[in-house]
Structure formats: structure tokens, C-alpha cells
Amino acid sequence: APVNVKKICCIGAGYVGGPTCAVIALKCPQIQVTIVDLNQSRIDAWNSPDFSLPIYEPGLVEVVKQARGRNLFFSTDVDKAINESDLIFVSVNTPTKKTGVGAGFGADLHYVESATRRIAAVATSSKIVVEKSTVPCRTAESMRTILESNCRPGCHFDILSNPEFLAEGTAINDLFKPDRVLIGSLQTPEGKNASAALAGVYGNWVPKERVLTVGLWSSELSKLAANAMLAQRISSINALSAICEATGANIDEVSHAVGFDSRIGPKFLKASVGFGGSCFQKDILNLVYLSESLHLPEVAAYWRQVVDMNEYQKSRFSRSVVETLFNTITGKHIAVLGFAFKADTGDTRETAAVTLIRNFLAERAYVTVYDPKVEVSQMWQDLTEACPDWTLEQLQKYVTIVHDPIEACKDKEAVVIATEWKEFLEIDWQTVYNHMSKPAFVFDGRLLVDAEKLRKIGFKVKVIGRGE
Ligand code: NAD
Ligand code: UGA
């Protein structure tokens, strides 16, 4: 019979492990949930008395307030939490490899491996080990080999794949009401029992018909497939946005018309300056690498194009700023509104804003940045990483970070909207206009503002995917 899960350990207290297991704790008061991490300051932030949590996610503080100290705990004592638990989520980072075989494409699995080795080394009883991290197809096989070759006698491990589909900014809602929960297991009696045990945990709040149980490899591949197909929709619409700009068609109208077809659907068809976020590019490159290593070069090239189109979109947008500003931005002052990779998050991983700013700096323009949520220190870190040829002093001569959008735009020749923060709609654009150099340009990379209204004020407005 399936194990009755009483204690859960989650290794990795990041964007996924933190919110996911906090919600499990909230919804399953009978289960004790301990989230562990090697990063002491991250754990301290999760435990902070004033709930200044390490990540910003709407609704997260309320969840942690209800469960922390009741049945939700954050700790750096990884071994103790592993040992006490019946079920362990491995929710560590799986970034793209920077060096060695597969550099720039393949997933760096060393965090997954060291967490797995730790489980084998310290567990004194049998466990269900759940891959929560996004991993290449068949990683569960490697985890099983590591566990079985290193564990103590009498310990048995069942491996499950349970990829996470939450999006940042809506994580809590996505976790409360998931489209589906996917659980992959070996199709053996033990594998199916382990799968039923995890399904039982989700059964506390997710309707049965939304919990899908499949084979291990299908589950692992479905996660890469879902992200690749979501990103592909954005690259498709962004490719069409270039045609719109060249022909006078309007990408919003095209998206609307196309999305009305119930087979296509309206979601995820918003043209943009390019997708960002920690996962789309990483997971597609992972799929490309997987395809290549399976000797499927045509398949690899097909998915590769989704990332190439995204790079094209970012450089196309930067180029259009330069061209519109009379073919030179050297010495000009540009305000960049938004730095996060999307609204409602403070996360900046792979944000298009960094690419734009780097391109502007390459032309020796001065850039002033405002974002309502991103930490100033994070912006400096991202910019120094993106511009390795620049010293921090040089960067600070060209880049200014401010805490107010109106101040950001003051005396600038152009405003670039890089993130779709709602508060940019509430900006008093007349005041912005009064204080800008003329002609005053607005480049909307997010189809956010009412271009006609701004034109009436006097702005020259360029919107992604809209020909004049
Ligand atoms: P993250 O970097 O925010 O968090 C990972 C945490 O794991 C870090 O705090 C790190 O210190 C910790 N860690 C690494 N190795 C460890 C070890 N051996 N022992 C203990 N702690 C360790 O990453 P994330 O954004 O939460 O992503 C985690 C995984 O989930 C990735 O595979 C990612 O692809 C996937 N994913 C992310 C999202 C998202 O929205 N961010 C959504 C779905 C899936
Ligand atoms: C994405 C997926 O939506 C999640 O299902 C998945 O779990 C997650 O990746 C992951 O594996 O990490 P996330 O990256 O948090 O979630 O955010 P999205 O809402 O998907 O946005 C990604 C990027 O695409 C953002 O830069 C966003 O601005 C852009 N985007 C999104 C568009 O340009 N157009 C759209 O129509 C939608």
C-alpha cells in the first residue's frame, strides 16, 4: 500500500522549493514540511521575524505567515531533515553548463547530483525521492543508480518525477489551482505505490482528475516540452511582430484574431521585447542538447530557432531605438522603465532589459533605470556580469539607478518600456513629457501604454509590432 506521507523534506529553498512546499504545508496541516538549503542567508530570510522573504511573490507572505512554525520549517540542517522525512523533493537549481562538454546548452546537474549523494549518505530508512527540478530526460535513472550504489543496507528508494509548472508572479495562484499536477514513476508496483503516495499529498487540495500519473521519462520530457512550446508561441508572435512593423499591420489585432480560433487559444500570444526568465532559454537549450546527443540534428535545429528568434527580437528592438533616434545614441540619455523579466516579480534572470541596456551602452548612451521591485544591488550585479569589459566605475559613469519613474525620465531623449509593470500606466505622462528633451520618444516593448494618448501629449511613440 502507498506510504502515508507524514514528513516532507525539500532540498532547495528557491523560487520553486519555497513557494511549492509552503503551499503543501498550508494545505496539509497533518504533514510536517521542512525546507532546507545550504545558503544560510536565504534560510535566514525565510525565517525572518518580519517576513522579509528572499523572493517576492504576491500572496506568498500570507501563506508563510499561516504555516511557518506550525508545520512549515526552514533550516540549513540538511541531513536531519533528510533523515526524518518519508518523502524528499529535490528542488535545486539546474542552470545551463558554462564550461566542459555541452557548455552553453546542456544542464549542469551537479547540484542535483550532490543533493542525491547527500540523501544516499545520510538516509537511515527508505524514502521516496522526487525530482522537482527541471532536468533532462532520464535523469531519474542516474539518481537511482547513485542512490542504490551508495545507500545503507536495507534502505530502499523510489524515484518520482514531479515537475513544477508555476510561473513567477502568479506562483501562489498556480499552486492553489494548478492546470495539472504531473507525477512520473516507473510502472512497477513499487513505482506506482510511490506515485500514489505523492498523489495523496496533492489530493488534499487538487481535484483528482487534474493529477496525471505517467511514466518517468514522459514526465521529465513533458516539462521540457511544455516550456519549449510556450516559448515557441512567443517567438512565433514576435516573428510576426516584425512583419507587422514592416507592413502596417497591428500585432495585437493579429494575436486577437488568431487566438480566437479555439484550437490556438488566446493566451501567451503577447508580442514583447523578448522572453526572459530563468527557464525558457535554459530548457530549450537543454532540449536542443538532448536532441543532438540522440543524433536528431533536425529536431535540435527546429527548437534552436525559438531561441534564435528571441535573440533577434531583442537586437531588432535595440536597433530600432538607435535608428529612430536619428541613427546615433552616443552621449544621449535613455530611461529604461522596468528591469525584471516580467511584471510582479523581482527576478531578473535572463531579463531582456539587461540585453537592451548592454546594447545601449555599447553605443555609449547614458542609461537611467527604474524598477519597482528589483534590488539595486541585483541590477549592478547583472550589469557587471553582462558587460565583462566594463569596470564597475565605468558602468556607474553611464548607468544611474533611481527610485522614481518620473525622475528616471527627466531630461531624457527617450523612454524605453522593458517590463509591463501596471504602475507605468499610472505615470503622469504629461509631467514626463514636460521634463523631457524634445522630440520626446517612447519605445514600448510591452504593448503597455496607450500610444494614441501619448501622441496627443506630443510624444513620438514606437510600439513593438505596430507599423505607423
Ligand atoms: P533557485 O536557484 O532559486 O533555488 C535553488 C536553491 O537550491 C538555491 O537556494 C541553492 O542554494 C539550493 N541548493 C543547491 N544545491 C543544494 C544542495 N546540494 N543542498 C541544499 N540546497 C542546495 O532555483 P529555482 O528557480 O527554485 O529553480 C529550481 C528548479 O526548478 C530548476 O531546475 C528550475 O529549472 C525549476 N523550475 C523553476 C521555475 C521558476 O519559475 N523559477 C519554475 C518551474 C521549474
Ligand atoms: C514559465 C512558464 O510559464 C511556467 O509554466 C514554467 O513553470 C516556468 O517558466 C519555469 O519552468 O520556470 P515564468 O518564466 O515564470 O514561467 O514566466 P512566464 O509568464 O512564462 O513568462 C516568461 C517570459 O515570457 C517573460 O519574459 C514574459 O514577459 C514573456 N512573455 C510571456 C511574453 O513575451 N509574451 C507572452 O505572451 C507571455
Describe the structure.
This protein is α/β, with parallel strands linked by helices. It folds into two domains: 7-206, 3-Layer(aba) Sandwich (Rossmann fold); 217-468, Rossmann fold. It contains 18 helices and 14 strands. A six-stranded parallel beta sheet has the order 3-2-1-4-5-6, sandwiched between helices. Strands 11-10-9-12-13-14 form a six-stranded parallel beta sheet, with helices on both faces. Strand 5 (127-131), helix 6 (139-150) and strand 6 (157-161) form a beta-alpha-beta unit. Helix 1 (17-27) crosses helix 3 (60-67), helix 5 packs parallel to helix 6 (139-150) and helix 11 packs antiparallel against helix 12. The longest helix is centred in the middle third of the chain and has 32 residues, at 216-247. The radius of gyration is 24 Å and the shape is globular. The protein starts with 6 loop residues before the first strand and ends in a 5-residue tail after the last strand. The mean pLDDT is 96. Uridine-5'-diphosphate-glucuronic acid is lined by residues 134, 164-168, 227, 230, 234, 268-270, 272, 275-280, 341-342.
Residue share in helix = 40-55%
Q: Which value, in Å, is the CA radius of gyration?
A: 24 Å
User: Which strands sit side by side, in order, in the main sheet?
Assistant: 3-2-1-4-5-6
CATH topology of the largest domain: Rossmann fold
Q: How would you classify the quaternary structure?
A: single chain
What is the beta-strand fraction? Answer: 5-15%
Please give the largest β-sheet: 6 strands, parallel
CATH-assigned homologous superfamily of the largest domain: NAD(P)-binding Rossmann-like Domain
The total tally of domains equals: 2
Task: Quickly give the CATH architecture of the largest domain.
Answer: 3-Layer(aba) Sandwich
Report the principal-axis shape.
Answer: globular
Number of E strands: 14
Q: Return the structural class.
A: alpha/beta
| Overall pLDDT level | 96
According to CATH, what is the class of the largest domain? Alpha Beta
